[in-house]
Please model this.
Amino acid sequence: MKIICIGRNYANHAKEMNATLPEKPMFFLKPDTALLPKRNPFFYPNFTNDLHYECELVVRICKLGKNISTKFAHEYYKEIGLGIDFTARDLQQKCKEKGHPWEIAKAFEHSAPISEEFLKKEALDMNSLTFSLSKNGNQVQYGSIKDMIFNIDELIAYVSQFMTLKIGDLLFTGTPEGVGPVQIGDKLEGFIGEKKMLELAIK
Ligand code: MG
Model:
């Protein structure tokens, strides 16, 4: 399986990164080794001094498809979960400056922890879904699906022009404003609406 991550899909996050708004979705990949196996602790990587959380809604693809039209994209996912797109911001900044690919900053081991549970989209209000992340008990990120620049169906349609989507692939749909650093000892908790979806201790 592959993990597809959308960048700059919330205007206020693009702004906090001093980035321009995309005219088309922007995406990159993480390997399956970016997932954090169940009950494993998350260890702060030794190659960065500025590890950031980016809390994101995650869609699990449930049907094989390519060149999917926006109109039919809703048939390609049934469940939505929550994930963290961990980013070595210092390495990413260097990659950006040099015009290099982002993998060392984004695709490293355990850089994509996801919730164990995924929620059935029929049970959710997919037009106004909200999600949030707290660090040590304080809310640091809050997002609404309404604020996505490109909605989930548009993202699926766009990405599937370039690569076949397979059952089990994960789509990280972008992070809202409020990204920031974590330190060893921090505790992150992610929520969809009021429901706690994930908890992570930084070791
Ligand atoms: Mg992200």
About this structure: The chain has a mean pLDDT of 96. Helices lie at 11-16, 89-98, 103-106, 152-159.
